[in-house]
Design goal:
- This protein is about 40% helix and about 15% strand.
- The chain is α/β, with parallel strands linked by helices and about 575 residues long.
- Strands 1, 13, 16, 17, 18, 19 and 21 form a 7-stranded mixed sheet that branches. Strands 11-7-6-5-2-12 form a 6-stranded parallel sheet, sandwiched between helices. Strands 3-4 form a two-stranded parallel sheet.
- Strand 5, helix 4 (about 130-145) and strand 6 (about 150-155) form a beta-alpha-beta unit.
- Helix 15 runs parallel beside helix 16.
- The longest helix is centred in the middle third of the chain and has 28 residues, at about 350-375.
- The chain is globular, with a radius of gyration of 27 Å.
Length: about 575
């Protein structure tokens, strides 16, 4: 991933062919998931005019246009699972790999006058690491295009209610120009983590709990154990939030040319900031409505000149200058004189992606003969397969899986097929999972090991979360990539059991049982463990934890004691887990 953190394994043994393939994996994964997997879209046309004409014929797009990316009503996700009911929902989904791919293709498209993204409030619609990778894709686009194509981000506000704008603004800051509606605020207030605790309620209802954890930082069950964060959980959470906050703050400061101290202390401590204050601090370039910001993305026209003219002008004066050039302001714009400047021709991102797909199909058809010739000649170039692993890890069969579940049955089958496929020379495993079943995780771990043993390098790309079982299945990879905002680690084990029997007795409900063995009803929610059963659980948890540590040590090429010291159930940002 672009600008990601590489937590490379200390080498075990890779023969020459595998090392070469691994280098190919590294080169391709550094720019995101879009260019992975044999879909390189370069066309060898002689002259630039002929190339442009060919693109127009293949895609049906205008000769010049502004590319619009509307995230105001969009979820930015790793993978958009097909679900007929989602068509009825107001919020649509855009896959990260498609965003990266679209921007990569757009960077080579000379028809673009500019790119504009309508950010909106992405909290709850985009994870931290996904937002950072999207941001990296924008920065990569700017690096490739230079001054040829302007990039603009616009939002009505960055956290309208006074909070929640930190992530939205982090993404927006990657664009060359950032504009906000005049009435908006910039709420770069930092990060907060809050959790309800249920111990008193459970005690009042007479619900008894049994919890065992390895080790002190594995605090997933603290909500039912305590009335507040334990010292260990508070320490770990504080370290995580500070790490992520530093990454975001420094990223914003660098992109906007604002001193880090000014950004970290004044902006964050005084947020939410009014539009005027944000403009004075250099966090926004102007206070414009959506239609006015669109003109800024259309290239070096009169509107842009009017908006940027006069270094000594106030924000309000610059706003007036832009307003006089705005044509047919939209209905949500209170007022504004008419303009002789034509509205720019725009192409929305979904249409642009479809145009790319249409062109790919034509190119594939024309390249079919070359591919057959290559195969007949024995040139085994090979493919890099991308496998998605997103959701909680379970042993569910294919029929029981859902979009938020990693079925070990299905994923193991997929990895076995790749291991036996001679056309596949390397695998990228995209992991976005908080963990789950230890047994299911171990089964997936084994198939990743077998992939490597078959001579195929495996690279793991971590999403928003790759913790606990998510880290378990990542550990044997040749190399792991994570963003600083990825939550990973959490190498530990937890087991919890509830006894609601006494609670039911208070309302006149009783239970009875018939068993054929002393432990047949051990996991019943209506009784406690016997001392012997509790000891057996503790022993089993120890065995799982020790196995986890051993496999991480083997997979990452570390000493067991080194892993044990770093583990203890502690989670953290990708940068801190390096």
């Amino acid at each position: 991933m672009s600008d990601g953190v590489s937590a490379a394994q200390k080498p075990t043994s890779l023969h020459g062919q595998q090392s070469t393939l691994l280098q190919r994996v590294l080169r391709r994964t550094k720019t995101g998931l879009a260019v992975i997997g044999g879909l390189t879209l370069t066309a060898a046309y002689g002259a630039s005019i002929a190339k442009k004409r060919m693109l127009e014929e293949a895609t049906g797009l205008p000769e010049e246009f502004v590319l619009e990316i509307d995230l105001e009503n969009m979820q930015l996700v790793d993978e958009a699972h097909s679900n007929p009911l989602e068509a009825l929902l107001p919020s649509k989904k855009l896959e990260l790999r498609k965003l990266v791919k679209g921007l990569d293709e757009a960077s080579k498209d000379n028809r673009l006058n500019g790119v504009i993204a309508y950010i909106g409030d992405i909290n709850g619609r985009c994870g931290l690491a996904v937002a950072q990778e999207a941001r990296n894709a924008v920065l990569d686009f700017r690096k490739k295009t230079g001054d040829r194509t302007i990039t603009v981000a616009h939002s009505t506000a960055f956290g309208e209610a006074g909070t929640g704008g930190f992530l939205s603004y982090f993404l927006a800051s990657a664009f060359e120009k950032v504009y906000m509606q005049p009435t908006g605020v910039v709420s770069v207030t930092g990060l907060a983590a809050e959790q309800p605790f249920f111990k008193q309620a459970l005690d009042r209802w007479k619900v008894r709990t049994f919890v065992t954890q390895r080790e002190e930082y594995k605090g997933a069950a603290e909500a039912v154990m305590y009335d507040k964060f334990s010292p260990e959980a508070r320490y770990a959470l504080d370290a995580l939030l500070k790490s992520i906050s530093t990454t975001i703050t420094e990223g914003i400061a660098l992109a906007r040319g604002v001193p880090t101290v000014q950004m970290a202390h004044y902006a964050v401590h005084n947020a939410p900031l009014s539009g005027t204050s944000a403009r004075a601090l250099g966090l926004v370039d102007g206070l414009l409505y959506r239609d006015q910001a669109l003109l800024q993305a259309s290239g070096p026209n009169d509107a842009v000149k009017a908006a940027t003219a006069g270094e000594g002008e106030s924000v309000e004066e610059k706003q007036t200058a832009v307003g006089t050039e705005s044509k047919n302001a939209s209905s949500d714009t209170p007022s504004g004189p008419s303009s002789t400047v034509d509205d720019p021709i725009t192409v929305n991102f979904a249409r642009y992606l479809k145009a790319i797909e249409a062109r790919e199909q034509k190119e594939k058809a024309s390249m079919r003969f070359k591919e057959i010739k290559r195969l007949m000649s024995g040139d085994k170039k090979g493919e890099i397969a991308v496998v998605m692993a997103e959701g909680q890890i379970r042993q569910a069969s294919d029929g029981a899986e859902t979009s938020s579940l990693i079925s070990s049955v299905k994923l193991c089958k997929q990895l076995r097929e790749l291991s036996n496929d001679d056309a596949v020379k390397a695998v990228v495993l995209r992991v976005n999972s908080p963990g789950g079943s230890a047994v299911a995780s171990d089964a997936i771990y084994r198939e990743v090991v077998r992939l490597r043993e078959s001579g195929k390098p495996v690279a793991v790309s971590m999403g928003d979360v790759a913790a606990s079982g998510g880290y378990f299945i990542s550990a044997p990879a040749c190399v792991i990539f994570a963003q600083p905002t990825t939550i990973t680690g959490s190498i530990g084990v937890i087991f919890a059991k509830f006894n609601v029997g006494p609670a039911l007795e208070q309302v006149g409900i009783t239970t009875d049982r018939v068993v054929t063995g002393p432990n047949a009803g051990a996991l019943s929610p209506f009784s406690d463990f016997t001392p012997k059963q509790a000891a057996a659980v503790e022993k089993q948890v120890d065995a799982i934890y020790n196995d986890f540590l051993q496999k991480v040590a083997e997979g990452r090429g570390m000493a067991l004691d080194e892993v044990r010291e770093a583990a203890k159930g502690r989670g953290g940002g990708g940068g801190g887990q390096r």
